[in-house]
Amino acid sequence: MNIAVLYPWVLFLLMFCAVPLFTRDAAVVRYSTLSLIPDDRISTLIAISLRLLRCASLALVAIGLSGPYLPEKEIERIGEGAQIVLLLDRSSSMDQPFGGQPFSNPLITRDAEAKGAVARRLLSEFVADRRNDKYAMLVFSTEPIQVLPLTDKTDIIQAAIDAGNIGRGLSETDVGAGIIDAVRVFEGQPYTGSRLVLLVSDGGARLDQVTRVHIADMLQRYRVALYWVYIRSRYSPGISTATTGDQYDDTAPARVLHEYFETLETPYRVFDAEDPRALAAAIAEVNQLQSLPIRYVDITPRKKIANWCYAAGMALIAMLLIVERMEIRRW
Amino acid sequence: MNISRNADGPLFRTAWLWLILAFLLLGVAINYSSFRIPIYTYRYLFVLDITQSMNVNDLKLGDVAMTRHQFAKSAIETALRNLPCGSEAGLAIFTAHRTFLMFTPVEICEHYRALSEMLEKVDWRMAWEARSEVAKGLYSALDAARQIEGDTRLVFLTDGHEAPPLNRDIRPPFRAEPGSVTGFIAGIGGTVPNRIPHMDNNGNVVGYWSHEEVMQVDIHSLGRAATVPGEGMDGINMANVARRIMLGQEHLSSLQENHLQELAEQTGLDYVRVESPLDFLETLRKEKYARRTPVMSDMGWIPAMLAFVCLSYCLVVIPRRNSPASANRRPLRLEPIP
Predict the structure, then answer these.
(1) What confidence score (pLDDT) does residue B212 get?
(2) Counting one residue from A and one from B, how many pairs have CB atoms under 8 Å apart?
(3) Which of B85, B91, B94, B104 to mutate to test the interface with A (most CBs of A within 10 A)?
(4) Pairing, β B43-49 against β B88-95
(5) Looking at residue B200, what is its pLDDT?
(6) Taking CB atoms and an 8 Å cutoff, what residues of chain A touch B154?
(7) CB B90 within 8 A of CB B152
(8) Is a pLDDT exceeding 80 seen at residue B234?
(9) Which of A125, A242, B116, B321 has a C-alpha 20 to 30 A away from that of B86?
(10) Residue of A93, A117, A112 lying closest to A101 (CA atoms)
(11) What is the pLDDT of residue B182?
(12) Over 90: is that where the pLDDT of A150 sits?
């Protein structure tokens, strides 16, 4: 067990602590001649231990003053938890009302909850529920923007999710570039556990062949699973609605994207944000995914031990007090 | 029996008094080892201009030449390292005509790693559009700062280069109340106009913006985009537009202090030119931007130090004083017992 100190220079006081070794033990009592007193071994022992006691009490306070602490320790633990990249759509369409809520007049969109707000609420709950995971976050519209590196501090993740509530969305939706950049977060990171890109988006996109191959390749190379939380717009069909024909490309681009994702060899799931159980399902699915235990470094914070020094010092002082009261000063 | 001296002496030389005092003081020290005291902390939203004019390489940090962008980042990095724990920082980027908030303020000591790692990643490649309407960007930054809870101060780091340029007479309107957000505009950049680099995706300079590639006059001066091209707009001075375009210097960029000062005045912010990161830190530490928050701190050392003094007085000084002269200095004189 290592002990470190904050202010090593205070330890110079320890030199001063040796002074009681050389002072006298007790009050001076006059006696006719010392040769009359027999040499008593126990008395000598008591005298020496009294001197040591004084030194020790001073030294303990001095050490306490120097700010001793047990340094933070890194312990490698094996546990549960995944590395998750949150990929949030911030295109302006996300400011439109969410399809999964009742509305009476289709023209009134004022009080309706925006798709983006639904997305952030879901993400926030997801993160709150899975605190052991490491998260990074990207938002995408025309260009993917990384807003967080991989981190396990939940405060800053919530702060990044929160930030979406301020200001409007940007412009277009480029899902392909978003996914590729999201997977890139894992570049150069050690593979310590299951990896997941959690895409939260309302939109489909028809990806060209190059992008399709690129995405499939990236997901495979970095062994990343893709989960899509689909946020339905008003009037657009749900993702899992049975396909009605082959003319749906224009009416339901989300389904085109979904069908492409299904051809991926890496794990892929889709969740409908409308379904209240979807989030719980998603959270549970991530649990399923963890075939591999994650290895992470747990840091136990440094611990100040000055108080222990002071407490020990108090104990010694109490003993000194008792001795002091027992002392015979005259006879 | 012969009593050599008054054994107790004056009260302040009685050992047990000092021992008790030391004992009590140590108890106090343990009690106050985590004590909440109010100190000055700060809550800032840093908005970084990531438009291309920030890539101009005209600043120096020590002997190292760097771009305005790198300079601004190292200024924020210095702030993150040196502001007191308990302070909070949020990050946003500005390009085109708006500020994009990346995350709301979080405590800087606990999140230092994530914050500095993220700051490192911010660059011009994140820009989703290549325009630089500083005034509008500043207004939206003010909106963002106002919407974040908890009285956030705004720090807007920019060179003030507007692209496309503004019309002298038609400025973007500022609708919010001046002074509702406090903070400052940090002017970053050299005063000598410099070429703005084109960069490839790896950050290499592959050329410079030329005179023809940028808008040399504001869009109002170019006239209405109507059936008759270049139709004049009411109240806009369209004289000499061609000449103004020829003489335009908008492809060069320097720190637009006058413009930023005007903006600061309009919005109730301060304007500070950043000469060095330490300079920047000093401005950030100003009392007018601070708030008082209770922060856990260790106050135990004060009573512990007093305890040490009491204890050493009792164990070192008193025994010396109390020892009779004979015991210390005078040679022992034996007297016959009567």
Answers:
(1) 84
(2) 176
(3) B104
(4) parallel
(5) 85
(6) none
(7) yes
(8) no
(9) A125
(10) A112
(11) 92
(12) no
